[in-house]
Amino acid sequence: MVDTALYQALGIPMDASADDIKRAYRKIARKYHPDVNPGPEADAKFKAASAAYDVLRDPEKRAAYDRYGADWDQPRPEGGPTGNTRWRGGFAFDEGDVNADAFRDFFGTAFSERAMRPDQHAAVTITLEDAIAGATRSLTLQSPQIDETGRMTLQTRHIDLSIPKGVLPGQQLRLAGQGGGGADLLIEVSFAPHPVYRVEGRDLYVTLPVTPWEAALGGKVPMPTPAGPVDLTVPANARQGQKLRLQGRGMPTAVPGDLYAVLQIVNPPQLSDAARDLYRQLARTDTFNPRSKLGV
Amino acid sequence: MKKAKPRSARADLVETLSLSELSVFCDTSDNWVVTLVEYGVVNPVARTATEWEFAPPHIARARKAARLMRDLGLNVAGVALVLDLIDERDALARKLAVMEGYAN
């Protein structure tokens, strides 16, 4: 059976020209690059396309793939690409690999001198809870080593990484002496999306739904905080989208961040008869016209 | 594949990186970082004659710029525009998230 997975990853037919391959890869890279389009789905598409492009852009590798499919890079007695060609350089870590070929393709010398030794950094994705409480993560690092027979092998190292509390998205961590050649290893931290909180710098945001009467009358409503639920005092006649600040309840950084509740006025899915009667009463007595600016 | 013994290590928060540390972290050259500064993509903490230092948000931005330039074949002016537009888009997405809230 013919293996076409790499062609499918780029959305091209098996007889695509070298230019078609390049064009397809560039289009996918623009659309699904993880820095442009965050999210696991885009990331997977980008990685699949990069891996496919790595093979298909090289006529020799492409011919081997067309002939042998997914096993194209296994060593074969008749000669041809060897097992080592699959290694693309650098540290492989949690999520992601270094696409050194594409790197060189676009950048030539500016980047390529260092492209084969990016063993000074790694990346880790943590939850908001990990960042607030601190956490330990096992980090798997792979670095290329030349063994006594001159063959390239990947040495795997595991590091139990202790993440200090109060780390923010986009923050970097330093592990002294753990990088290639005894240099410091720098680790980029990103946060997995949280179902309740949004993180902006050291502040946290939570969208807090309130009923129209809670917004009108004000009073205490329960709200979640990372340290457990609290009663938030909503001012009377609160607005849709109004931000209420809980000082110091955000990220536990040196200067603690704040927690903001953003009010979201929500009507009940169905009005009860009693509520309808009360609204009718309000409609008869209140003269507020929200459309006065529209001249009606 | 060789296996090595597990090691445990306490990570420290990075306060700042020097120009040369940042260029290593981005797999690029000091000149490239200087160009990023010239285009206003990143800014050093204190612009002294001796040494530039870069704070975490700028380090993250430089890494992002390096990845985008590498993967999409952008030049510095292009990546500067892309990063500004991504910031604008993210700000709009945050506003939209607030407006949509739990309504759906």
Count of distinct strands of chain A: 11
* Quaternary structure classification: heterodimer
Cα distance, first to last residue of chain B?
50 Å
- Low-confidence stretches of chain A are 80-118
**DSSP helical segment count of chain A:** 9
Task: Name the overall outline of chain B.
Answer: globular
Find the CATH topology of the domain at 197-285 in chain A.
Answer: HSP40/DNAj peptide-binding domain
Going by CATH, what is the homologous superfamily of the domain at 197-285 in chain A?
Answer: Urease metallochaperone UreE, N-terminal domain
The average pLDDT of chain A is: 83
Strand order of the largest sheet of chain B: 4-5
Which strand-content bin applies to the residues of chain A? 25-35%
Order of helices and strands of chain B: EEEEHHEHH
Q: Strands of the largest sheet of chain A, in order across it?
A: 6-7-11-10
Number of helices of chain B: 4
Q: CATH architecture of the domain at 197-285 in chain A, please?
A: Sandwich
User: What is the radius of gyration of chain B?
Assistant: 18 Å
What is the helical fraction of chain A, as a range of percent? 25-40%
Beta percentage of chain B is 5-15%
Largest sheet of chain A: 4 strands, mixed
How would you portray this structure in words?
The complex is a heterodimer of chains A (296) and B (104). Among the domains of chain A are: 57 residues, DnaJ domain (Helix Hairpins, Orthogonal Bundle), CATH 1.10.287.110; 89 residues, Urease metallochaperone UreE, N-terminal domain (HSP40/DNAj peptide-binding domain, Sandwich), CATH 2.60.260. Chain A is built from nine helices and eleven strands. Chain A is elongated. In chain A, the strands form four sheets. In chain A, strands 6-7-11-10 form a four-stranded mixed β-sheet. In chain A, strands 1-5-4 form a three-stranded mixed β-sheet. Chain A has a two-stranded antiparallel ribbon with strand order 2-3. Chain A is α+β, with helices and mostly antiparallel strands. The longest helix of chain A is centred in the first third of the chain and has 17 residues. The N and C termini of chain B lie far apart (50 Å). The model of chain B has no long low-confidence stretch (mean pLDDT 85). In chain B, helix 1 packs across helix 2 and helix 3 packs across helix 4. Chain B is globular. Chain B is mainly α and 104 residues long. Chain B has a single domain, classed as Orthogonal Bundle (Multidrug-efflux Transporter Regulator, Chain: A, Domain 2).
